[in-house]
Write a structure and sequence with these properties.
Layout: H1 5-11, H2 22-37, E1 47-48, E2 62-68, E3 72-79, E4 83-91, H3 101-115, E5 123-128, E6 131-134, E7 140-144, H4 159-167, E8 171-175, H5 177-186, E9 196-202, E10 206-213, E11 228-232, H6 245-252, H7 263-266, H8 271-284, H9 292-296, H10 303-311, H11 321-325, H12 329-361, E12 371-376, H13 378-382, H14 388-404, E13 408-410, H15 417-427
Parallel strand pairs: 2-5, 5-8, 9-12, 12-13
Antiparallel strand pairs: 1-11, 2-3, 3-4, 6-7, 9-10, 10-11
Length: 428
């Protein structure tokens, strides 16, 4: 007897969205958070940032800001309410060949010299989204470069300290993109009152930051009680969930097998690769009457193509390889039925871990002061296969509002959130 879709998923250990145990996963997230905060072995790093969210942002204040985290960096003057002026985008030092320390820092120093005369905030804001350790004075020690940056002298250095040397002094606040995304939610306050904040990024990768009370950060017992700071959780590393044969096969082919397993189940850098493993397994199990040879011959699959095909969307000017692979209408129909659960699962897992961080914040019990969630990233806002944002909100309503009387609000998307957040770090 021919295998059903349900049997196919069960045989491969793929837990569909309707079968995910929400409460068990929330409990697992909370347990890993507590372990990370205590300095115990945990799949969540729970990195203290020494950045707080207390106080009102002085309206009309302006900060000189840098934003670096990819192959380009940006500079601007940012004021609150969010207005970005004098923005310049240019290549990140080290992307066009190897650079030394002086050349590296001078590129940033020149931009701060350009914009600092228009700033009123005493500190510079710098969103620096590479692998760093945060310090109490809001500096960042670079651990390792990613994204092909060739500036080996910078590894191990305190980036803010070295940059300020080239400027002849000053003060700087360095944050990563997830922390900056959280801080950008404060820019949306206006007359609203929020009890706490989350910053969430879901694009090529994923991460979450939230606000924690100092007394709960047990690995830093000397912190003053009664205050709080932002924790960078590195939530993509969470590993207490069931992974399917498709997830494991995809992971084994990545440059970093075993690293960030949760990220590889929800983020845009990986969903296409999961889909490829799913389709190949389905082809071997006889689900496609005419398309199996073409499926087995596919070498790679981009998430955009996987998403567009599943949604039945044709992007102008972009040929989708899956449209050719599944030229047979019957095979295309079953392929879409097999693909849809990958996106449904991603949306539910996204909501589960956001719910866990809202719960961990200990806030939101007053409906007039919800926890603000600032969500950023192309996978969250541009996925077509499922109504991602709507699904996440429906899940959060059930897990938080109905079950626990905890209230949240996903704030309107903040344009240029990393720059806005870096400015707020400088102002606060």
């Amino acid at each position: 007897m021919k295998k059903t879709v349900e049997d196919f998923f069960k045989d491969n250990g793929f837990v569909t969205a309707d079968r995910i145990d929400r409460q068990a996963m929330i409990a697992a997230f909370l347990s890993e958070m507590e372990k990370g905060l205590a300095g115990e072995a945990s799949s969540l790093r729970m990195i203290p940032t020494y950045v707080g969210v207390d106080g009102k942002i002085p309206q009309g204040s302006k900060a000189a800001v840098l934003d670096a985290g990819g192959t380009n960096f940006r500079s601007a003057v940012v004021s609150i309410p969010p207005v970005i002026e004098d923005k310049v985008n240019q290549p990140m030092p080290g992307t066009r060949g190897k650079v030394g320390a002086d050349e590296f820092y001078e590129a940033f120093a020149n931009e701060l010299r350009r914009v600092r005369g228009k700033a009123t905030a005493e500190k510079f804001g710098f969103c620096f989204s590479y692998n760093c350790d945060a310090t109490e004075d809001l500096d960042a020690k670079l651990n390792v470069w990613t994204k092909g940056i060739q500036a080996p002298e910078i590894v191990g250095q305190y980036v803010g300290r070295e940059l300020l040397k080239r400027l002849g002094g000053g003060k700087i606040a360095i944050v990563n993109d997830t922390v900056a995304t959280l801080l950008a939610a404060k820019a949306m306050e206006g007359d609203r009152t929020y009890s706490s904040y989350l910053g969430f990024i879901l694009g090529t990768g994923t991460n979450t930051a939230y606000v924690e009370r100092n007394e709960n950060i047990r690995k830093l017992p000397s912190l003053p009680a009664g205050r709080s700071m932002i924790i960078n959780s590195e939530s993509g590393g969470f590993d207490k969930m069931e992974r399917s044969a498709f997830d494991l096969a995809m992971d084994a082919k990545q440059p970093d097998p075993g690293h960030n397993p949760f990220e590889k189940m929800i983020a845009g850098g990986y969903l296409g690769a999961v889909g490829l493993e799913l389709f190949k397994s389905a082809a071997k199990d006889g689900f496609f009457s005419k398309s199996a040879p073409a499926v087995l011959g596919l070498g790679s699959l981009e998430t955009m193509d996987f998403d567009n095909f599943t949604a039945g969307f044709v992007k102008e000017g972009r040929a989708n390889p899956l449209d050719a692979v599944f030229a047979d209408e019957g095979d295309a129909k079953i392929a879409r039925r097999l693909a849809l659960p990958v996106f449904e699962r991603a949306a539910v897992l996204t909501a589960i871990h956001l719910a866990a961080f809202v719960i961990k914040s200990g806030e939101g019990t007053d409906a007039s002061a919800p926890v603000a969630i600032n969500a950023d990233g192309s996978t969250y806002y541009k996925t077509r296969a499922v109504p991602f944002d709507r699904m996440v909100r429906a899940e959060l309503d059930e897990m938080l509002v109905k079950r626990r009387n905890i209230h949240y609000e996903i704030v309107p998307q903040v344009e240029d959130a990393p720059m806005v957040g870096a400015a707020i770090a400088a102002m606060l």
